[in-house]
Amino acid sequence: MRKLEKLQNDSKAKTDEKVLLEVKNLKKYFPIKAGVFKRTVGWVKAVDDVSFFIRKGETLGLVGESGCGKTTTGRTILRLIEPTAGSVHYNGEDLLAMSKRKMNKYRTKLQMIFQDPYGSLDPRMRVKDIIAEGLKAAHIGNRKERYEMVKEYMEKVGLSPLYVNRFPHEFSGGQRQRIGIARALIMNPELIVCDEAVSALDVSIQAQILNLLDDLQKEFNLTYLFIAHDLNVVKHISDRIVVMYLGKIVEIASKHELFNNPLHPYTKALLSANPIPDPTIERKDRIILQGDVPSPANPPKGCRFHPRCWLAKPVCSEEEPPLVEVRPDHYVACHFWEEMEKQN
Amino acid sequence: MVKDVLLQVKNLHTVFHTEDGTVEAIGGVDFEVRQGETLGIVGESGCGKSVTSLSIMRLLPKGIGEVPQGEVIYKGKNLLKLSEREMRKIRGKEIAMIFQEPMTALNPVYTVGEQLAEMVELHLGMSKKEAYDYAIKMFEKVGIPMPEKRIYEYPHELSGGLRQRAMIAMMMSCNPNLLIADEPTTALDVTIQAQVLDLMRELLKEYNSSLIMITHDLGVIAEMADRVAVMYAGRIVEYADVVPLFKKPSHPYTVGLMRSIPRPDVEVDRLDSIKGVVPDLFHMPKGCRFSNRCPYAIDKCFEEEPPLVEVEPGHYTRCWRYQEMEELSKHWESGEEVGKTSK
Predict the structure, then answer these.
(1) Which chain B residues contact residue A237 at CB under 8 A?
(2) CATH class of B5-230
(3) Helix axes A143-156, A173-185, angle to 10 degrees
(4) CB under 8 Å to A299, separation ≥6 — which residues?
(5) C-beta atoms of B274 and A204 within 8 A
(6) What is the CA radius of gyration of chain A?
(7) B273 vs A211: CB contact, 8 Å cut-off?
(8) Are B221 and A277 a contacting pair at CB < 8 A?
(9) Using alpha carbons only, how large is chain B's radius of gyration in Å?
(10) Where are the domains of chain B?
């Protein structure tokens, strides 16, 4: 059962896969409006110059705390929110430069699973209509064919096809999340953005859904962008992990590298704050960060993490460290990553 | 050294009168909390862990929730038999409660300082001036920066972490003997959670207070609790010290819970999961309440509900097959056809 070596080989094999999606210098600024005339008085830099790529068939985890911009990143990639600047190349074509019409054709390939299994399903629609809605919008099949497909995909996600005529409220949280997965899967997508897809579920149900996502990935050769705040869940499902802090990427690495050799102080603090379900482990090395996450409307100058960082030196408050590849496939944005490596 | 028992809950039953009839939310819960100790209550949504705390505090919604049976003995007195007036003296002063979402537990139209001052004026008989000075002191103690300014702020002006700190300051202000924390860090980010748990640990030590920590997070339990009660569908299914519970779980539900969480320290190819979903209160299985999801269930489990038995000194479990559990728990059948079971 504990196939650590096999897993490591798996992730190695995937580094040869081609890049499916490449995000470059993505920015999303939300205006802050005030006064009678709703003048823009400032900008919330929710996503501020973010670049990363996803290889075909891999799961890229995106972690960070609330307000770090992880959800905005996911939604901007699918153009559910229009970005301020940047590019998203999917199979070589820039999604952000496309006309809406052309983008709609691509939407079948790029699907999303949402966090809230209660809010993301229309309570007045039957399950069959919810799952078939995307097909209908994309003019795929006739009514009868769509109905057959719905039943087929319900079975694939572990729902009885007998329930096609039921309404969302008749299902439990885990079953609703399965409906959301069937709705995404039926479009035959290549990439699925899972935005906190298991956070609202109880742990025993969470495991069911994580296993389902894993099975479906193998069966349909899916690529996932898995957005979550739970480090353990992200570690379990991902091949590589992106860590965000206040609208910026601070570190990208394979999950083993990230957990064993975190090179950004924020990553290290995040990992050490993560409670381990084992009462015999003493956490002597725990790093307790001081203070709160600053507001993204007024982020600190220089490195955004410097007011909470125990390694911070004067340069950190002046110069923003760029994200650089310091080891093969390991990117970090810190002036003093070498010092971190020594500490590890 | 055995510490004094501070709170003892005996055979507690809570029922809710709903439009569809009366349901039993918790049925026969027993546990005790010793001075200076932390009891963790862990379970998934709907298992009755929050109802247990509300029943102890007598905060169940009037006319809907009711405790028909059981005793809650605090310092020799049965809290369930006290008059509302006597109970009010205990709430806040002797037993204080911290809620999951500080935004809804705090009053939005009063400043946080006013709310803390009100408590100490009432319970400790301080004057307004003294109460405000005391509020500043308490805010400082829980690590709120610039307390003399912060006490004049409203709850919405504070961040989630600071709000929970303000809440803790308020709860600790009357130096309670027992704190009940219902998912106190669930709404917080992990780095803020670490801060808050650290603070709670320090304060408990300083005041020698006891804590009932209600959570669904086994990681938090492992870090905070001395003793743990695992609840499932209104019952305590396992009750033990924290180390034996994690090392030698003897109820299939506990085994399943531990196997279904992804762990940072162990790598697995595939998670184990517990098949099916928690039964709703109107359709509880006959016999053991976990029987329909249990991979080890035998005929007897579907017929008769097992009692809570002591497997080792201080380690209790509610399972017919507890003697075989060590052997059984080596294998776990997740039952992947889960989605097809009707609800």
Answers:
(1) 262
(2) alpha beta
(3) 130
(4) A45, A48, A246, A247
(5) yes
(6) 21
(7) yes
(8) yes
(9) 21
(10) 5-230, 233-340
Q: Which two tokens stand for residue B12?
A: 């507690």
Delimit the domains of chain A by residue range: 4-109+189-343, 121-186
- Tokens in use for B223? 């870090």
Report d(CA A74, CA A226) in Å as an integer. 9
B264 touches chain A (CB under 8 A): yes
* Residue B3: DSSP 8-state: P
Contact across the interface for A204 and B217, Cβ inside 8 Å: no
Query: What is the distance in angstroms between the CA of the first residue and the CA of the last residue of chain A?
Result: 28
Distance separating alpha carbons of residues B113 and B96, to the nearest angstrom: 17
Residue with tokens 């099975």: A215
Total residues found in chain A within this entry: 344
Can you name the CATH fold of A4-109+189-343? Rossmann fold (3.40.50)
End-to-end CA distance of chain B: 48
Q: Is A148 on the interface with B (CB under 8 A)?
A: no
Contact (Cβ atoms closer than 8 angstroms) between residue A223 and residue A56:
yes
For chain A, 344 residues long, give each residue's pLDDT as a single digit of tens.
444 444 444 444 455 678 999 999 999 999 988 888 888 888 899 999 999 999 999 999 999 988 889 999 999 999 999 999 999 999 889 999 999 888 988 889 999 999 887 888 999 999 999 999 999 999 999 999 999 999 999 999 999 999 999 999 988 888 999 999 999 999 999 999 999 999 888 888 899 999 999 999 999 999 999 999 999 999 999 999 999 999 999 999 999 999 999 999 999 999 999 888 898 887 767 888 887 788 888 899 999 999 999 999 999 999 999 999 999 999 999 999 999 999 88
**CA B326 to CA B203: how far, in whole Å?**
38
Helix axes A203-220, A173-185, angle to 10 degrees: 20
Partner residue facing B267 (CB), from A2, A214, A286: A2
Predicted TM-score (pTM) of this structure: 0.87
Encoded tokens for B318: 């509610």
